[in-house]
From TrEMBL:
Lineage: Bacteria, Thermotogati, Deinococcota, Deinococci, Deinococcales
Family the UniProt entry places it in: Belongs to the CinA family.
Highest rank taxon of the organism: Bacteria
Organism: Deinococcus sedimenti
Gene3D superfamilies: 3.30.70.2860, CinA-like, MoaB/Mog-like domain
Descriptive protein name: CinA-like protein
SMART domains to which the protein is assigned, alphabetical: MoCF_biosynth (SM00852)
Residue span(s) of domain MoaB/Mog: 5-176
Annotated gene: cinA
Any single Pfam family the record assigns to this protein: CinA_KH
InterPro entries (UniProt xref): CinA, CinA-like_C, CinA_C, CinA_KH, Competence-induced_CinA, MoaB/Mog-like_dom_sf, MoaB/Mog_dom
Length: 403
């Protein structure tokens, strides 16, 4: 199976000034097409270090993808580094130069002389058109150690990179004939280490593979299988996926492209949802904002206001606001006082001695479901974690609560 490597180019990426979303996109694309990714790296705008990284990558990978460094300025060095690594001399390609000048003239501007480097090519490279930017890419066919190698140099702006990858690079790649099938199971309320323990030997096998990933909404479990055909891959995947689903059924809320908020919306089955948040600063409402069943909300930490919404003084003085009793009363209050069919409440402590404690509850008037969590983190993490817990509770509970 061909081995790929990604090098993201740019000092702004190296210092964290810009998030490297391109590498994540390319990694997903490679995996979906059966290409094995062994290394990803970020290199600043330094010719010597970038050349060394390219040479090292060509020693161990069949396909090298570089992102960024194709601009017209002195610190855009991807072309120079590729040329140096391959011992080739870049020359201005007249067809590319005419195209670039046309882009500027169409906008009533003269092309700066610095942009000439964007028309460079080396003998082993062909230009990749960029319909939404001025930086053409390179697709290089070369050899190293007697083995064929491919290099794709793509622009840094994500919109330009993704379009060039889809329209120009994919059709030039000798993609494997094997098929890859995969399903990602979304869980909440169980830790990654406990999942690995429960799945046991499944996480140690190679094909089908079972891998866990911690996410804001819980832990994802990705089950993948490769085979010569899709049918064969699916046949290998199915029994392992069924076992994973069975082991994790208690904590599962969805699969693949499903989101927590979307899963809750589907489970509402036409019912409306009212929300009360105390301490989570509206994070839950933000997650639900675009869901049609989301009727109304109250976001407040004021005890007097919360008492008018269903929190009893007895609970406030005894158990406290951030308690299961408090969440249960406010879930009932969200339904009653906000005029919804269902009430969902979250109470969370983000500072002081009780920081990390949160309780969530769901009420339909006749029944109440509740859950709690207690885990350290900064205030933003605690709010996000509590909101996700509220959605997970609703996603897992509502399918059993028929309208």
């Amino acid at each position: 199976m061909p081995i790929a490597e990604i090098i993201s180019v740019g000092t702004e990426l190296l210092f964290g000034e810009i998030v490297d979303s391109n590498a994540a996109f390319l990694a997903r694309e490679l995996g979906a097409r059966g290409l094995t990714l062994h290394h990803k790296s970020v290199v600043g705008d330094n010719l010597g270090r970038l050349q060394a990284a390219i040479e090292r990558a060509l020693d161990r990978a069949d396909l090298l993808i570089l992102g960024g460094g194709l601009g017209p300025t002195d610190d855009d060095l991807t072309r120079e580094a590729i040329a140096a690594a391959l011992n080739e001399t870049p020359q201005v390609d007249e067809a590319q130069l005419i195209h670039l000048r046309g882009l500027f003239e169409a906008r009533g501007r003269a092309m700066p002389d610095t942009n000439r480097k964007q028309a460079w090519l080396i003998p082993s490279a062909e230009a990749l058109p960029n319909p939404v930017g001025t930086a053409p890419g390179w697709f290089v066919r070369t050899t190293r150690g007697g083995q064929p190698k491919l290099i794709a140099a793509l622009p840094g702006p994500p919109r330009e990179m993704r379009r060039m990858w889809t329209e120009q690079v994919l059709s030039r790649l000798p993609l494997p004939t094997t098929a890859l099938e995969h399903v990602t199971v979304h869980t909440h309320g169980i830790g990654e280490s406990l999942i690995a323990e429960r799945l046991g030997h499944l996480t140690r096998q190679a094909n089908p593979s079972v891998a866990t990933y911690a996410r804001l909404t819980g832990v994802d479990v990705r089950v993948a299988a490769s085979a010569p055909t899709s049918d064969e891959a699916r046949a290998q995947l199915t029994p392992v996926l069924d076992e994973v689903r069975g082991v994790l059924r208690e904590w599962t809320w969805g699969e693949d492209d499903q989101t927590l908020a979307g899963t809750v919306q589907a489970a509402l089955a036409g019912r409306t949802l009212g929300v009360i948040e105390a301490g989570s600063a509206g994070v839950l409402c933000t997650l639900l904002a675009e869901q049609p069943g989301f009727l109304d909300a109250a976001v407040t930490q004021d005890h007097r206001r919360l008492i008018t919404l269903g929190l009893t003084p007895v609970t406030l003085q005894g158990d406290g606001l951030v308690s299961e009793a408090g969440a249960r009363e406010l879930a009932a209050g969200a339904r009653e006082h906000l005029g919804a069919n269902l009430g969902l409440a979250v109470v969370v402590c983000t500072s002081g001695e009780g920081a990390g404690q949160a309780h969530v509850a769901l009420s339909d008037g006749a029944r109440v479901a509740a859950a709690g969590l207690n885990w350290p983190g900064d205030p933003a993490q605690l709010r996000e974690r509590a909101a996700a817990a509220a959605l997970a509770l609703a996603a897992r509970t509502l399918p059993g609560w028929t309208p």
